[in-house]
Design a protein that fits this description.
The protein is mainly alpha-helical. It has helices at residues 2-25, 32-45, 49-67, 75-87, 91-102, 112-128, 132-147, 154-169, 175-186, 188-198, 216-223.
Length: 224
């Protein structure tokens, strides 16, 4: 319940930031790109994946006009878009977004941790299609690349490692059903969060002057 409240506050903060930037600069100004990415991240954590997709698509439109369609600056929004599309069951949209991140992994300016997450996304899609060996190979690439980073994202590394080990434990005949089940389980936490938001909440302590998280990652840290 505390986490749900923090995320609600984070969403309100990000929406205010977007609205202020729109008022100052207009709806398509480059200053909005990061704010829309932050909003998309919070919306995804709250389980509102369609709204998250909309935010990431706006960010991408702005970024494409500024940098072009293949610039590494777009990768953060592409990963967020792909993950939310995956949660909505839109596998084709997820595939297109992940592929844009991984198409040229050695391009100048590429953040290799985002490429690793892109590989991980492709591995999940391959597994959901029943393509056991390609899924295992892609998951192995994701695992090796993330582990090789100087400061790997511990949460993402754990997700990739768990998925990789799960792939090794199932037979090729069972991999499609198992992968589809894992995708459902991965987003089950969203349902729990939304359930907790629907419950009556205690009145906040007026002496509690904590500042809402500026991004979803900050919100996650605040709740730990």
């Amino acid at each position: 319940q505390k986490r749900a409240m923090q995320l609600a506050e984070a969403e309100a903060t990000q929406r205010r930031a977007v609205a202020l930037l729109e008022q100052l600069y207009g709806p398509d100004h480059p200053h909005l790109q990061a704010a829309l990415d932050n909003l998309g991240e919070v919306l995804a954590l709250r389980g509102d994946h369609q709204a998250a997709v909309d935010a990431y698509q706006r960010s991408l439109k702005i970024g494409e006009l500024r940098f072009g369609p293949t610039h590494p600056e777009l990768d953060y929004a592409l990963i967020g878009l792909a993950e939310s599309a995956l949660a909505l069951g839109d596998l084709e949209q997820a595939r297109r977004a992940f592929t844009r991140v991984t198409r040229d992994p050695e391009a100048e300016g590429k953040q290799q941790d985002l490429v690793a997450v892109g590989y991980f996304g492709e591995a999940r899609l391959l597994a959901a299609e029943g393509k056991a060996q390609p899924a295992r190979e892609r998951a192995g690439e994701a695992r090796a690349l993330m582990a090789a980073q100087p400061r790997p994202d511990a949460g993402e590394l754990e997700r990739i490692e768990t998925f990789y080990q799960n792939l090794q434990a199932v037979t090729p005949a069972d991999i499609q059903a198992a992968a589809q089940r894992w995708l459902v389980q991965e987003h089950r936490i969203v349902a729990v969060l939304r359930e907790s938001e629907a419950k009556p909440e205690a009145k906040p302590d007026p002496t509690d002057k904590k500042t809402p998280a500026r991004s979803a990652k900050a919100g996650e840290k605040a709740s730990n």
